[in-house]
Design a protein that fits this description.
Elements lengths: L13 E5 L1 E3 L6 H10 L9 E9 L9 E3 L2 E4 L2 H9 L4 H8 L4 E11 L9 E8 L6 H16 L4 E9 L4 E8 L9 E9 L9 E2 L2
Antiparallel strand pairs: 1-5, 1-6, 2-4, 3-4, 3-5, 3-10, 6-8, 6-11, 7-9, 7-10, 8-9
């Protein structure tokens, strides 16, 4: 059966994250207060599917570092551009912490989980390189099947799959209702979730 292109419906997705590693004795209450007072500012930001305000705390959930590491799923690249260099908010990060490197990926798919109606309290990120010489078509199809299986797990709010074609790495990002499993590669606390255009992100694959 023919499948209509997601592009015809404007259902695109771009993933982005920056990681700000802080001193071992840093008071992470500063980050909590920052999100509590500023997190709402992107609750209606045009082009933003979701922003998860994430934190890793040294000694918690296996983290060796203190880190502020927000993760974004963009519905529109112009929104991402406006945020980063159009005065849309990133200038506050640069002013307070310096300019971090911004990881970015092409969105592959988004799956809603059984806990999608809840407010997620945890998140995780898993990265897997494509083997040298592997056919991207087959590798991505396998990753899509794994994402679908992963997303139906207990406590999953949603799970996104994205790819960096420069280094050929697949990244799976998951929001969890409560704790993320200890088996996950990187585990985060979710301090706030902005979802102005979450409904506009693709259901399933993003092409």
């Amino acid at each position: 059966m023919a499948r209509r292109s997601r592009h015809e419906n404007g259902q695109l997705m771009y993933a982005m994250q920056y990681e700000i590693t802080l001193p071992a004795d840093y008071d992470m209450g500063i980050i909590r207060n920052r999100v509590a007072t500023r997190g709402h500012l992107l609750d209606d930001f045009a082009g933003l599917g979701l922003k998860a305000y994430l934190m890793r705390e040294r000694g918690v959930d296996g983290s060796p570092v203190n880190q502020y590491a927000p993760f974004y799923l963009w519905h529109a690249v112009d929104g991402m551009n406006r945020f980063l260099w159009g005065g849309g908010g990133f200038q506050g990060i640069v002013a307070d912490f310096g300019r971090p490197s911004v990881l970015n990926w092409t969105g592959v798919a988004l799956e809603r989980g059984p806990a999608n109606a809840t407010v997620p309290r945890a998140a995780s990120r898993h990265t897997e390189p494509l083997p040298a010489g592997a056919d991207p078509v087959g590798a991505v199809e396998r990753a899509l099947a794994e994402l679908a299986d992963h997303a139906v797990g207990a406590g999953v709010h949603s799970a996104a799959l994205a790819i960096n074609p420069q280094h050929w790495e697949l990244t799976r990002f998951t929001l969890w209702e409560n704790e993320s499993p200890a088996t996950e590669e990187k585990r985060y606390q979710v301090l706030h979730l902005s979802t102005p255009q979450l409904a506009d992100l693709p259901a399933g694959r993003a092409w």
